[in-house]
Amino acid sequence: MLIPFVCAVEDYTAYDSLNMQTAISSKIDLIPTGDNPNANFLTAELFIIPMQSELQKASNVQYISIPEAEIEPSQDKITYTWDKLTDSVTLGVTADIKSSGEIIQIKDKIQFPIINLDFNYNDYLQATEFIDINENIRNKANELVTGEDDLYEAVFKIADWVNNNVNYNLSTLTAEVVQKSSWVMQHKEGVCDEITNLFISMVRSVGVPARFVSGVAYTNIEDNWGNHGWAEVYFPGYGWIPFDVTYKQYGWIDPSHISLNKNVDSSSPSLTLSGSMHNSKFSDTKLEIKTNLVSKSDIKQELVTTDIELLNDQVGPGSYVPIKINVENLQPYYVPVQFRVTKAPELTEDNIKIILLKPNQKESVFWTVKIPSEIKSNYLYTTVFEVINSFGSIESTKINYAEDYNIISLEQANQVIDSYKIAEQQSSSEEISVNCKPEKSYYYTYEKASLLCTIKNTGNVILGDLDVCLENNCNAIDLYIAESREMKFENVDANKELEVKISGNSIDYKNKFTIKSLSDPHLRVSNLKYPDLIFYNGIADLEFTLSSEAPVKNLKFTLNGHSFYDLDSFNGKETRKITLKGNSFYSKDKSVLIIDYEDENGYKYTTEKSFLVNMSNLPLHIKFFDFFRNLFQ
Questions:
Q1: pLDDT (tens digit per residue) in 327-336
Q2: Does CATH place domain 524-631 in 3.30.1300.10?
Q3: What is the mean predicted confidence (pLDDT) over 593-609?
């Protein structure tokens, strides 16, 4: 038995995690075919089950069997066995699911093509019944990744091509009968499982292991959870990375996804039946999967910064306005970012774009909007362009247009965008490869950075008199064939965009980049929780989430001026709960939590969080003190 698939754009992308309850069940009827129908025994194997993974935790798992069966759960299936049946049976499983939308932190470039792949992953490279590989699939995949040496970039390009070139079509041909990847490649249409099949086929054809995931995810077609299929791609050193091509989520999935089965092919069964029957047969079986949302986490931490740059802000009627979205990855790992235009007068292309940002990379995304042609004289009009990213951050800008402003044609708008793209793109050379990286993953604004650049001659001639420059700091080098040289630039200003230039011998290489710079360790307190009513002479728990972008030390916590907690060191994100005396929360106005701490270099910082508390059973002397203090203020 296979699961039908329903898909649509998700609405939970901005949340860190979701808590859900899911129930999987099936009823199997015993249909008489003669006198005294019965089954001496029945064995059912359920392969659609709540799974455990890095991004998903299943708890409170309960098994269902009516009448009672012998149940044997394992990692990839649940086996139910009944003896002497004369009627229908029901089987199933329920579980509480916590699903994370976290991006797995891939900090280093993984070489592509993959070499020396562990033989345990060979099954995930092979063609299967529905994930087949033909010449058209192999040729297109090779065309997309030719010249690419970064695995994440290569897989990302294939995912984006499939999404942009295969139409989601819930027709009879694709909804009721699963089509092979070769069919989808030819007809350029399909539903979730078929779109995923083609993606997996293309990825496998270039030597990258991938597998099919069956599960459920939120769909706004029915404002509910529906059966869904996506992929996981194997990244050596990091494990299986999710790619939901239908939802435009490349390298991550939103937390509404619940994985229930992972296999080499999309045709793997959900439920199998076997038994000894007498004058009877099994009815057609159907799995029912119900999922309910229990609670949502906080909105995700912003991993990137985004701002909108209008390349023309005053235009005439009928103009085409180029818009530049500047985005910077604040993290020391790859971050895929989806941008969706939510407000605009008219777009010349799709409203969704996805980019892959390398660690601490800056990049730009461009759109062109069309201004209305019919406007009145002597009026100044304003329209809004708004974009939201996959972390829930919304940016907007206003465009002014009037009859007496200059009209910008589509050709002019494209020329403006092209000029920015040319200026920003790296001028690469087939004769040279350059890899520049800072000695540390980040620097504080009070520090000077050190930059290491490895330059290799990848051509077949000696490269002499090359000028290697970082800003105005230049060095001359010679490179023999296949020779690599390492250059170190000291006292680099980490607080601005940097440009490395290499010139000479027909080499013209330029690359702009930034070094991650911190003004402070960004120690933050969030998710503050405490009782609605606190008794002055009682005790109360103070719970909070502590997060920092860099390691800190010598943390001292005070509440309303009273020291209550010390930490030698901290880094990352943690939730802590501390039991305090009720009077610690007392303050005439707001309670103030203050944390004094140092960065790893000994520089001192302070962060604070104010909050209101409800105090009860205040002692008489406190009431008198407050009364007279208020009287004389």
A1: 999 999 999 9
A2: no
A3: 94
